[in-house]
Amino acid sequence: MSGRADDAGRSVSGLERVWLAAGRMAPPFAITLDLEWPGPVDPARWRAAFDAAFAAHPALRVRLRGHLRKARWAVTDVAPPVAEADGALDPGRGPVAAITLTPQGWRVRALHAVTDGRGLWAFVEDAVRAYHGEAVEGLPAGPLTDADLGGDGAASPEPPADRPPPFGPCDGEPRVVLETLPDERGRCVPRLCALLYARSRAFTQHPLRVSVPVDLRPHLNARTGGNLTGIVHLDLDSDDPERIAASLDAAIARGAAVAHARAANGVREVPLWLMTAVGRREARRHARTGLYPVSTTISWLGRHALTVDGAPVTVRLIPPPAPGVPIMLGAIAGHGALQLAWVGVGAPRD
Question: With contact defined as beta carbons under 8 Å apart, do 16 and 265 qualify?
Fold first, then answer.
């Protein structure tokens, strides 16, 4: 690829500005998807598959240009690197995504500022399709963003910092703790909320608050590799999955996820340096008081049946440690197993 940029690009959404600021606070603030399977890894064959998949996913080839409301993602022809060790990611200079080959498979990382879990998962599916000689589906880089949600509904305020971390006081550096559970059929997010609440009772008797990302693409009938994910906040005071499911459904039905995205859209006029400074100040306050707006973010990517040359693939979603959030929980299921990644300064000790 030549490196020529498409200056048309698309606007940087409010949600993406939030993740850009988080990237300044805790670089690189990248989503990771790890793939492992039994059997050999053919680097040459995979590199060809990555080329085909990256060509169909321009959101992973962008560079940040401009400022405030004029900030845009310019699509380039530069393919993200494929290497045997993780390298740096940068929204302006690039790359914004990268592949790392491992003895058991490969992993892809992408800045959360350029895509969300659904966008990165679509790339993974296309890479596996290309590896098997199948046609890729691709996702456009835009043009729709949270600014296109429209309507006159109110923007949701951030919740107060009044909730404890689930597993006792936070200390030290962010850590990643992997866990595998049986994949019980049914809705996974309420079950994970119930699991979190039940386990937390050994450390705190206070209610928890979790944030749950919600895909907004259906709301706009949109296909995009950019960020289009709102957030629903749930207050937890029991480990009853059915009760939690009812609360989640009610929050989505009243438009809480869309309201969150509207609120994020309001920061498009706020300089990144100011967003970063305020974010750092708030993160220090949360660490000092031991109280946070949310106890945990639970990101559920769904169920899959990926195979490579007929072998079942184990996939793990590893979210970035978020400033001011004790735990980020990434969850994805496949082949009868539920893979969990607890990430952050409040992650449980393994």
Answer: no
